[in-house]
Design a protein that fits this description.
Blueprint: H1 3-13, E1 34-35, E2 43-50, E3 60-68, E4 77-82, H2 94-97, E5 109-113, H3 127-130, H4 138-149, H5 158-172, E6 176-183, H6 184-195, E7 200-208, H7 219-232, H8 245-256, E8 260-266, E9 272-278, H9 279-288, H10 293-307, H11 312-326, H12 335-345, H13 356-369, H14 380-386, H15 389-392, E10 414-419, H16 427-436, E11 441-445, H17 452-455, H18 460-470, H19 507-537, E12 547-549, E13 553-559, E14 562-569, E15 575-580, E16 585-590, E17 597-601, E18 607-611, E19 614-618, H20 629-635, H21 645-658, H22 663-668, H23 670-678
Parallel strand pairs: 4-5, 4-6, 6-7, 7-10, 10-11
Antiparallel strand pairs: 1-2, 2-3, 3-5, 8-9, 12-13, 13-14, 14-15, 15-16, 16-17, 17-18, 18-19
């Protein structure tokens, strides 16, 4: 799957949290519902609708629907949960929808359906995406897929899905609908509200795509990048890293000259490989940070290091992003449907009657005509690479260019949620929609990216949702620093000379002692990331199978309940080799820059020994303690949908409980370790 489609697959996966109900029927319902197999909460039904809502072209589509009934009476209103994408099936998340709205659905049914072309509602498919290796270019693949779908590809746009929602409303016997949408689902909700305002009770819009969006060149995303980078450095979080993260990124992009820089990535067994890093990949990482704030936490320092010529942190960052991508699947989004909707409906800067080659030239000319400031600190080339223009130029269009949506929006109770750090659908779009609905309430949630209800670190947005339907005042979200684990990581020293000596020591011995502390803190962070990744993706975690690579060299392995260091290096010229057991520690410090020696576990759990012929000791952090559920929640990245978070936390707690004594404590103390060592770097 292309990166853009993969990003949207993640966005769609996280675009799902909405409300509950229990029993009764809608009096005028025409959809035959029956209990869903294996579910006591939802009834299953189908509704056959015209392929062409205008009735011109023949054919029908059968929509798969799930209904959760209000607990009392015959509901005349329903909440319709709209998935994102385009291309996301909603039914797989039906059970999770019931966990979000609670009392909001006490008098309303919940309707979940797979939009046409997705899931169980006539999913689109083509051989091209099943066997992409048989095509000499992505353009040929796109053309082949569209040709195989045939003339019906004209009927998978947003207006067609709007007609389906109205058909479900009528057949379900509902007078009014509450439309809940996330990302692309907000565009669908807004267009329904424009066409059927008399049937809209309320709108819940999470991560807004405007009625005429998205912009095919993602101009709002590029405009938001500088703001988001500065927000990551609020509360003096980057004081020991950089004064200007935007300038750092701009200089690094210029250093790449449209190509790449290279860095060494140390694998989990200590093997090094060269990573080529492009500006497009930096942009992809920033976008992935909408759901994985740990990527963004590491981004600021990695870019600052790269700007200075130290590319090891960038290589590690790219490697972690690649690891996350390998754990993603394309099964959650219908890719042919994604392109059928996107290509037919976005307003690309070209003539639809032109050839593919001519369209590409017209699009590139449009990009080139814009000022460099429109994309800074990135470039126009990054904009074109991110967009779907390169694919959709080869799409054989089956519809005219989409009309501009100018219909007014109904003045109904509306809650608009926007993550302050969202780059996919920046707050500018949310503000534009809020201005069109007189009484709309816009809530900007700090420290949050895309899909607010599933990624917010607090309950601010959920509280606002309930307040809206209770007629209460919606409170603004407090502006607070992010959780310790999600704050920008320290800038890795390029050489030992840049490390401040440990307190009470001086010279190379003191710097080496500080380097040991920094190296152990780096290892603890990398191990915790590995634990979270393993417990979150595989459903189980085997400590004996875990190993992590150093930033500069070496690796660490858990074996037999012990930690074995094999030349693990965080600072050039300083390596740690040895073993940490439950009741003993032996670490040998070596390297061309280090004051060599050995550290062991002494009284009061201190590391004691000799470095460079001098007696030294490292006191244990006073904050070291066993991890708790609250700490685990603080330290957990939002890489997965919130629906998976409780199980993930439980597995994390069980894992840390089973680790050797001292290791679980070190992991629990990780945020404090990083905070303690921030001041050790010059």
């Amino acid at each position: 799957m292309r990166p853009r489609a993969r990003q949207l697959a993640i966005a769609c996966l996280a675009a799902a949290i909405v409300g509950a109900g229990a029993s009764a029927t809608a009096a005028d319902a025409q959809i035959p519902f029956a209990p869903c197999p294996g579910s006591n909460d939802f009834a299953c039904g189908q509704l056959t609708v015209p392929l062409d809502p205008s009735g011109t072209a023949p054919g029908t589509i059968t929509l798969a629907i799930r209904r959760h009934l209000a607990p009392v009476g015959n509901a005349k209103s329903a909440v319709v949960a709209l998935a994102g994408g385009p291309g996301q099936a909603a039914i797989p998340f039906a059970e999770y929808f019931t966990e979000g709205l609670g009392s909001i659905l006490s008098t309303r049914d919940l309707i979940v359906f797979d939009q046409r072309g997705t899931g169980h509602s006539h999913p689109l498919s083509c051989h091209a995406f099943e066997h992409p290796g048989g095509f000499h270019s992505f353009g040929a693949l796109i053309d082949s897929c569209a040709t195989q779908i045939g003339a019906e590809r004209a009927f998978y746009t947003t207006p067609d899905s709007v007609a389906d929602i109205e058909a479900i409303r009528r057949a379900g016997g509902y007078e009014k609908l509450v439309l809940y949408g996330t990302s692309y689902g907000t565009k669908l909700a807004l267009q329904y509200a424009q066409e059927h305002p008399e049937h809209v009770e309320a709108l819940i819009l999470d991560s807004v795509v405007t009625p005429n969006g998205p912009n095919p060149l993602d101009r709002s995303t590029f405009a938001a990048v500088p703001r988001v980078l500065r927000q990551l450095c609020a509360f003096h979080e980057c004081a020991h890293i950089t004064r200007n993260p935007v300038r750092d990124l701009a200089r690094l992009v210029r250093r790449m000259h449209g190509g790449s820089v290279s860095g060494r990535l140390i694998g989990p067994k200590g093997h090094a490989r060269t990573i080529h890093i492009t500006s497009n990949e930096l942009l992809e990482i920033l976008l992935a940070g909408d759901f994985d704030p740990i990527l963004r936490a590491e981004f600021i320092a990695a870019v600052r290091a790269g700007d200075s010529g130290d590319d090891a942190p960038l290589a590690r960052l790219i490697g972690r992003a690649e690891s996350g991508a390998e754990n993603e699947t394309s099964e959650d989004i219908d890719v042919p449907l994604y392109y059928a909707t996107t290509c037919e409906e976005e307003s690309f800067p070209w003539s639809r009657t032109a050839t593919a080659k001519e369209r590409l030239a017209q699009a590139r000319a449009q990009v080139a005509s814009l000022p460099a400031s429109a994309f800074a600190p990135f470039t126009a080339a990054n904009s074109f690479a991110l967009s779907d223009a390169g694919a959709c130029a080869f799409w054989p269009f089956a519809t005219p260019a989409p009309p501009v949506q100018n219909a007014p929006l109904p003045n109904v109770p509306t809650l608009i949620l926007s993550g302050a750090n969202d780059l996919r659908t920046p707050t500018s779009g949310a503000r534009a929609v809020a201005e069109q609905i007189p009484d709309a309430q816009l809530l900007v949630v700090p420290n949050t990216g895309h899909s607010v209800l599933s990624t917010e670190p607090t309950s601010c947005a959920r509280n606002a949702l309930r307040a809206l339907f209770a007629g209460k005042t919606i409170a603004r979200c407090p502006l607070t620093p992010p959780a310790p684990f999600l704050r920008p990581t320290p800038l890795p020293p390029e050489r030992l000379a840049l490390v401040a000596p440990a307190r009470g020591y001086h010279g190379r011995t003191g710097r080496t002692l500080s380097a040991v502390s920094l190296t152990l803190a780096d290892f603890a962070r990398q191990l915790l990331l590995k634990v979270l990744e393993s417990a979150g993706t595989s459903g189980s975690f085997k400590a004996s199978a875990v190993s992590v690579g150093g930033l500069r060299a070496g690796w660490v392995q858990i074996a037999g309940g012990d930690l074995h260091f094999h030349g693990y290096s965080y600072i050039p010229g300083v390596r740690i080799t040895g073993t940490i057991k439950a009741e003993s520690v032996t670490l040998r410090i070596a390297g061309r820059a280090a004051a060599g020696g050995t550290l062991r576990l002494g009284p009061h759990r201190k590391l004691v020994g000799a470095l460079g012929g001098r007696h030294v000791q490292i006191a244990a952090s006073p904050s070291i303690r066993g991890i708790t559920a609250t700490q685990a929640r603080t330290a957990t990245p939002d890489t997965l949908a919130a629906t998976q978070l409780p199980d993930r936390l439980a597995r994390l707690e069980r894992t840390l409980t089973g680790l050797p004594a001292g290791l679980g404590e070190a992991l629990a103390a990780l945020p404090e370790l990083w905070a303690d060592r921030l001041g050790a770097e010059s």
